[in-house]
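LHPL2 protein: structure tokens wanted.
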Amino acid sequence: MCHVIVTCRSMLWTLLSIVVAFAELIAFMSADWLIGKAKPSSSEDVDNKTGGSQEPYHPTLGIYGRCTRISHMQLSRRDTLCGPYAENFNEIASGFWQATAIFLAVGIMILCAVAFVSVFTMCVQSIMKKSIFNVCGLLQGIAGLFLILGLILYPAGWGCQKAISYCGPYASAYKPGDCSLGWAFYTAIGGTVLTFICAVFSAQAEIATSSDKVQEEIEEGKNLICLL
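Answer:
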């Protein structure tokens, strides 16, 4: 018989697991890892209303994507164009970034799988006599290690030609030159920290769902058990 067990700690762990997976996925797909040096407005990009040139803009560069601005001759304004600069894996600008993409992708896939499974932990608390919380916590710890490897290797690719074109000639491994770090990089770091917090907190979720009070509720014949 399936017993639906909901506790504050198990629900918090489930929500954190989902948030972490989405945060890492969004960061990976974003082009805002590096914010390039300011690009001056061209003579064609003149504001017809004020007669002055538009402010310089900052292009952004991700692991496999980029955002830049293009001029529309008919509209006399600039729009931001975002998309992948690499049509396939081999066209990613640096071997270090290729390795980063692999490690991050593996870590994110594990996190997404755990997030999916975490939704069902209200009904299923064990698998093959193993606590599903402990198994998921172990997987989250492994995913965190993959994420750390990816984030360590990513700055090593700042010396590639693509990064130099955005960050200037002084850009090199672990030195961003004229670039600054974008929100996606910080989000990936924050998500990695939360991944390990989730891995540790999974043990608390397991304790909460297997407590004596839960067992008493089960023995009383209750199928829906909600505890603080």
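The radius of gyration is 24 Å. The chain is about 50% helix and 15% strand.

Cheers.
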